[in-house]
Amino acid sequence: REAYRQLLRGLLDRGLRGVLLVVSDDHEAIKQAVASELPEARWQRGLAHFQRNVLAHVPISEAGEVAEGFSAIFGVRREETARALAQAFQERYGRRYPRAVETLVRGLDDALTYLHFPGPHHRLIRTTNLLERLFRELKRRTRVVGVFPNQESALDLATAVILRASEDWALRRYMDMAPLKALYTEFAT
Fold first, then answer.
1. What is the DSSP-derived secondary structure letter of residue 114?
2. Closest alpha carbon to 36 in 67, 76, 6, 65
3. Range scoring the smallest mean pLDDT among 38-47, 98-107, 110-119, 167-176
4. How many Cβ atoms sit within 10 Å of the Cβ of residue 154?
């Protein structure tokens, strides 16, 4: 937990401000660090990991059907609709897959946090997919090298990969920030 708190504290010391949302997997130390260091921020449980957690309690032969029901819950724009679909999911699968349903119910509130943000942002903020793609690219590039002569050479390669990704994203607009600025004003009052 302390490592995550120090990481966030370091970012805050370097000027990070106005954080409204943190998206991560269901890691207790991350959640505690966010609550401690970024008390104004909401926390969103990443849906890809959450879905894997739910489907871990379902036979592979039934996983496709259950995954469709899961995806339906998180494919809507209104919290009331998502909760109604979650209730239907519970009723449909509760007896067959009680642990899957228990996992869904236990994590539902944290997985629906994104619905408190502007609709156009939903698909962009409900998962950590963008970051996970970057990590996959780092793994792919380091596997090509195999064994590094020293720690600095590994760090140099990782830095180059991350800088390249940063340059690519500097030329793109990931999301329109105007609706978020309006939301920030709403939070500030």
1. G
2. 6
3. 167-176
4. 15
Torsion over CA: 70, 72, 76, 82 (sign): negative
Task: Report the SS3 class of residue 42.
Answer: strand
Phi-psi region of 59 (alpha: psi -120 to 50; beta: other; left: phi over 0): beta
Say yes or no to pLDDT of 174 above 80.
Answer: no
- What's the pLDDT at 184? 66
Q: How far apart are the first and last CA of the chain?
A: 31
Dihedral sign (CA 144, 145, 147, 148) = negative
Token look-up 């995954």 returns: 67
- Give, in order, the Cα–Cα distances in Å from 91 to each of 53, 69, 95: 19, 11, 8
The radius of gyration of the chain from alpha carbons, rounded to an integer in Å, stands at 19
pLDDT in tens, 43-55: 999 999 999 999 9
